[in-house]
Amino acid sequence: MERKTFNIAIDGPAGAGKSTIAKLVAKQLGFIYVDTGSLYRAMALYFLRLGIKPEDEAAIQKAVDGAGITICYQDGVQQVLLNGQDVSALIRSEEVGNMASAVSIYPGVRAHLLDLQRELAKSQNVIMDGRDIGTCVLPDADVKIFLTAGVKVRAMRRYRELVKKDVRCNLEEIEQDIIERDSRDMNRDTAPLKQAEDAILVDSSDMDIEQAVQRIIDVATEHGLKEER
Predict the structure, then answer these.
(1) How far from 23 is each of 5, 27, 44, 94, 210, CA to CA, in Å?
(2) What is this structure's pTM?
(3) What would the pLDDT profile of 176-206 be if each residue is shown by its tens digit?
(4) Domain holding 64: CATH number?
(5) 200 and 96 in a common domain
(6) Domain final residue, candidates 71, 94, 124
(7) Which of 19, 47, 100, 149 could bond 52 through an S-S bridge, CB–CB 3.0 to 4.6 Å?
(8) With contact defined as beta carbons under 8 Å apart, do 91 and 42 qualify?
């Protein structure tokens, strides 16, 4: 009998700690953490190598199917592969980042990467985080988590992170930015941020990172993780 994969979808607002927590859960469970941003950057690198300009949507649409992108782990380090080549270091340049931002608006690019994310989920145990993973990308995920925290808590976390990096910032401005971003995410036309009907709400306002990670692992275990692994 073919082995079934186990997928965990984590959605939630900005500043809830989704990426940090998802990476730690993935490490503890031996899952693949799917960094959606890296997928878009790999796609951008592919277009740059072909000499396609970001405004040429027709050329991008024509070329998109030639980009084979996947994520794997080597010695515990995430690798992004573009048509079999490890491009993890190459996709962090400003040029690639700007290209990724420009082409991510095209439906053809989004549709292609949606297919790639779903194929990854079919072939490996994965954990993905974002705004619409449980509602759009992986609607049949074994476990869906809606990870959130109060606005003031998220603002303070972001403030401390910036201060640690010696970045000048204002707590009130950060809080207002989070409020505005929440509004944009929840009210956008395409795949708005919302809790899936079958998602488990995890409010990390009074949790540290380790407690949030353990809570998600506990939920996964309650949903049959041991049987699937």
Answers:
(1) 18, 6, 24, 24, 12
(2) 0.77
(3) 988 988 888 888 776 788 999 999 999 999 9
(4) 3.40.50.300
(5) no
(6) 124
(7) 47
(8) yes
